[in-house]
Amino acid sequence: MKKKIALVTGGFTGEAKVSLKSAAVVEKNIDLERYDVYKIIINREKWCYQDASGKEYKVDLNDFSISLNGEKIQFDGVFNILHGSPGEDGKLSGYFDMLGIPYTTSSTLTSAITMNKGYTKAIVEGIDDLFMAKSFQLFENSPENTCKVAQELSMPCFVKPNNGGSSIGMSKVKKVEELQDALDLAFGEDDQVLVEEFVSGREFSIGIYKIAGEIIVLPSTEIVSSKEYFDFEAKYTAGVSEEITPGRMTPEEVIRVSKIAEAVYQKLNCKGAVRMDYFLEKDTGKFYFIEVNTVPGQTETSLISQQVRAVGKTVKEFYTELIEEMWV
């Protein structure tokens, strides 16, 4: 008998549109000979199952079930592809934990921590060969904090919501005069903001997941953006960025970053597929940590799928591995 999988998408933030695109790709590539898949859309107004015709059926939140033609459907597991809150910040996983329903992504604690860029940096700092750009985590948009950043950080710098994703609300500040506008934009998205000094180097992203106790590190993708930095448009608009998989690194650099990625995955106690973003600094060859994404995008232009195919695996096989790992 095929297992019933809830494909959870949507969300409460600006990333909801990206989440719906990711879900469409997963839905198209998941192995329907092994699983019955039900797309569950979550937003602030309602939780519902949407069938192929677009008809909606309300989710019973008492046990996360739906009723179809008089039959009660309960799920064997959840494929979580909900970016941002509540799918990536631990809220949804806590709910599933209480109901005893397994899911493909990290635990409540790991999800909550990794959603906060500043806290994540504090935990992974100290991993061998991994460096951190000088930064401030701000909890208030005040003249005092603006002055502190201007005095103690070198320009250019990045200003970004501490709990956000998809580069929404993020700015690259080249001059002190631009700093306050960037802080206003970021604080408009979040009540915490991270300000980091710019690292001169090339940007990469690397996928990591665990199967049967073994941590698998995928090939890195090098991101060459035609924009000032890898912003929302560069991430989700085809042709704006060139994505090279495997990225251009020496064999020694590949070995070194693979060890770093595995250590980050372990230290944060991740589960399922995550993506670590990093800079390879020009001239020094140092790896600088950017962030970890515990619900990486699965849109047509996303990076994980490229990396999976680079190791000779189909996306369908990859999704099957993630789903089966729920019950290990």
UniProtKB/TrEMBL annotation:
<keyword id="KW-0067">ATP-binding</keyword>
<dbReference type="InterPro" id="IPR005905">
    <property type="entry name" value="D_ala_D_ala"/>
</dbReference>
<comment type="similarity">
    <text>Belongs to the D-alanine--D-alanine ligase family.</text>
</comment>
<protein>
    <recommendedName>
        <fullName>D-alanine--D-alanine ligase</fullName>
        <ecNumber>6.3.2.4</ecNumber>
    </recommendedName>
</protein>
<dbReference type="InterPro" id="IPR011127">
    <property type="entry name" value="Dala_Dala_lig_N"/>
</dbReference>
<keyword id="KW-0961">Cell wall biogenesis/degradation</keyword>
<feature type="domain" description="ATP-grasp">
    <location>
        <begin position="124"/>
        <end position="324"/>
    </location>
</feature>
<dbReference type="InterPro" id="IPR013815">
    <property type="entry name" value="ATP_grasp_subdomain_1"/>
</dbReference>
<keyword id="KW-0547">Nucleotide-binding</keyword>
<dbReference type="InterPro" id="IPR011761">
    <property type="entry name" value="ATP-grasp"/>
</dbReference>
<dbReference type="GO" id="GO:0008716">
    <property type="term" value="F:D-alanine-D-alanine ligase activity"/>
</dbReference>
<keyword id="KW-0573">Peptidoglycan synthesis</keyword>
<comment type="pathway">
    <text>Cell wall biogenesis; peptidoglycan biosynthesis.</text>
</comment>
<dbReference type="InterPro" id="IPR011095">
    <property type="entry name" value="Dala_Dala_lig_C"/>
</dbReference>
<dbReference type="InterPro" id="IPR000291">
    <property type="entry name" value="D-Ala_lig_Van_CS"/>
</dbReference>
<keyword id="KW-0436">Ligase</keyword>
<dbReference type="InterPro" id="IPR016185">
    <property type="entry name" value="PreATP-grasp_dom_sf"/>
</dbReference>
<keyword id="KW-0963">Cytoplasm</keyword>
<keyword id="KW-0133">Cell shape</keyword>
<comment type="function">
    <text>Cell wall formation.</text>
</comment>
<dbReference type="Pfam" id="PF01820">
    <property type="entry name" value="Dala_Dala_lig_N"/>
</dbReference>
<dbReference type="Pfam" id="PF07478">
    <property type="entry name" value="Dala_Dala_lig_C"/>
</dbReference>
